[in-house]
Amino acid sequence: MKKLNLLFIAVLITQILSAQIEWDDNFEVISEDDGLESIYQKIVIDEDNNLHVVWQDGGGNNLVKYITKPQSGEWTVPITLNNEERNCHTPHITIGPNNNIHVIHGRWAYENAQDELEYTFFNGTSWSTPTVIAPGGNQSTGAIKTMIFNSNNNPIAIWGSDNRTGINEVYKMKFDGEEWEEPQIISEPADNNEAKSPISVKIDNQKYAIFFLERNNSNVRKMKFKFYDIQQNTWSEISQAPDFAGEIDNVAQYDIQYFNNKIYVVVSYINNVELWEYDINETDWKNLANITPGYTCCVIPRLTVDNYGLLHVFFNDNEATIKHYMYQPYNDQFSAVDEKIPVNNPWYPEAICDAQNNVNIVYYDNDYANENEEVHYVFGEYLKPYEPEIIHPTENQEYVATTGTILEWQNAGDDVVYDLYFGKINELELIETDYNLTNYELTENLQDDQNYQWRVVAKHEYAATSGILHNFFTGEQTSVNKINNSGIQIYPNPSNGTFSINQQAPARPCCVIITDITGKTIHKSEFASPNSQFVINKKGIYFIKIEIGNKIFIEKIIIQ
Q1: Domains and CATH numbers, the chain
Q2: Which residues does 174 contact at the CB level (< 8 Å), separation at least 6?
Q3: pLDDT in tens, 319-345
Q4: Of 11, 12, 3, nearest in space to 469 by CA
Q5: CB of 126 within 8 A of CB of 120?
Q6: How far is it, in rounded angstroms, from Cα 455 to Cα 470?
Q7: Strand ranges in 96-217 using DSSP code E only, listed in sequence order
Q8: Where are the alpha helices (DSSP H) in 100-217?
Q9: pLDDT at residue 360 in the model
Q10: pLDDT given for residue 11 in this prediction
Q11: Would residue 27 be called left, alpha or beta, if left means φ above 0 and alpha means ψ between -120 and 50 degrees?
Q12: CB of 95 within 8 A of CB of 46?
């Protein structure tokens, strides 16, 4: 007989009704609050759920600043990343392979009046010496940059609005392990259109998608994209996104995210925000939602996807606040979640969901009155049930049923109901939905010498847990014979409130746990004597669990 180890299965929840986020009422200033201009912040999260933020800081000679917040801790003191005091600007931060941190930023070179590109990385111990990787060329490295990585885990920097050829184009520059190669154009120089604003997203560890905007002489912008194959180190041909709402010439900003073979794109116009979906397998575009809330302007849209596959759209508007909308792909529902996140004068909001689906937002506050901008942080706690803790059957224990098999778990929070799955290996079935108790008696006894599995999904109005898969096994005998052979008797049953548990000689140490039908423990004690008497004064159905060594015996008793 094989004993199975605990298996964890990531399950895409399809029964989430909405998302409820409780925002911290107080923003936190994470820049140095020195009266200088702190803007153009970016936020990422690493594999250990730590937050990392960079921004452009300073007055005349701008600096690039960095700060981090451990999963359970406070923000560190900001440090300067650029090599020397000069006009460094618009940084981009990426978490690369091995959880290393990579930063690129613009750097204005006064001696030749050209905009360079500087790079540095953190290997878990220290920051590398900043290196100019794209010098000279009458270029402008632009406000939007990105980084991807090849199969050797070497970085590839991508930036736009570089006019060293006379026309702004999108460039890439690869590190070969020893030095940076010469810049290469990845947009379309033959069309004489200005290319800018590249954004990348990783797709299932196989490839990247790189999006960018092109604008012709008539100021008409088109969104284009191409793919980079990580293993083959090859680039696809350029494809063009649809014209969205027919107002593509008014596109101001956009953002992209990937989830489950689909790329999601949010774009903004003067007074509109649209959400689109690109199916990678079908190579097909679909309009998911249009926001026309009546604001004077809807700018700087940002998109993040949580662990349930729900899309969160953030943007700031003329009311000097951040708006929050959410789209649920499985039921094609798009709605406002928060009419107003409790912040003032936000610009360029950057948002990311952590491992617990909490939302972390950084933005810079435009303090017009004091002519001071600082980077602020606000935290939104995602309200969700707890993952139910299993009471029995527990992992790697031989389970013996008597008059019925009892599945039991602890309460997972207020206003929670449960979906219960049970079956043999590879035969898991939904046996209860919206169940409101924390124990369940199966209608049939377990079979002898079998492996079983079960999971319980806790859910409420706003979210659901993933439901961890649990495995257990049965011995060669089950039912009443087994409990009789063990030398345990429970009598009388039904009872008027007083009953006995008799363990025939030789007596073995036992643990007796009695729970009511809601799963609440009403008695727990060690049991070593041949006979013990128990009293339950309240009528109802109760469950008696007796643990002997690595075996568990369950008996239902009725108090009349």
Answers
A1: 390-559 (2.60.40.3080)
A2: 150, 154, 155, 156, 180, 181
A3: 778 888 888 776 677 777 766 787 878
A4: 11
A5: no
A6: 6
A7: 101-109, 114-122, 131-134, 145-149, 155-162, 169-174, 184-185, 194-203, 207-215
A8: none
A9: 95
A10: 29
A11: beta
A12: yes
What residues does 441 pair with on adjacent strands? 406
- Rg of the chain, C-alpha, whole Å: 30
Greatest pairwise CA separation for the chain in angstroms? 96
Cα within 13 Å of Cα(52), Cβ side: 22
Q: What is the 3-state secondary structure (H, E, C) of 408-439?
A: EECCCCCCCEEEEEEEECCCCEEEEEEECCCE
Of 236, 218, 238, nearest to 228 by C-alpha is 236
What value, to the nearest 5°, has the Cα angle with vertex 363 and ends 361 and 369? 140
For strand 131-134 and strand 145-149, is the pairing parallel, antiparallel, or unpaired? unpaired
Closest CA to 280 of 260, 265, 309, 310: 260
Output the pTM of the full model.
Answer: 0.70
Three-state DSSP state, 380: strand
- CA quadruple 94, 95, 98, 101: dihedral sign: positive
Coil, strand or helix: which one is 482?
helix
Q: Is the pLDDT confidence value at 110 over 80?
A: no
The number of beta carbons lying within 10 Å of the beta carbon of residue 500 is: 13
At 391, the amino acid letter reads: I
* Tokens 């039908």 -> residue: 517
Lowest mean pLDDT among 37-51, 233-247, 399-413: 399-413
Give the residues across from 56 on adjacent strands: 39, 64
d(CA 488, CA 400): 13
CA 547 to CA 179: how far, in whole Å? 65
Q: What average pLDDT does the segment 234-256 reach?
A: 77
Q: Are 58 and 375 in contact (CB under 8 A)?
A: no
Tokens of 33: 């609050």
pLDDT at 245: 55
Tokens of 21: 């986020």
Q: 274-317: per-residue pLDDT in tens?
A: 899 999 999 999 988 887 765 555 577 899 998 777 889 988 87
**CA 28, CA 26: separation in Å to the nearest integer?**
6
Which residues fall within 8 angstroms of residue 75, CB to CB, at 6 or more apart?
28, 30, 67, 68, 69, 377
Half-sphere exposure of 472 (CA within 13 A, CB side): 25
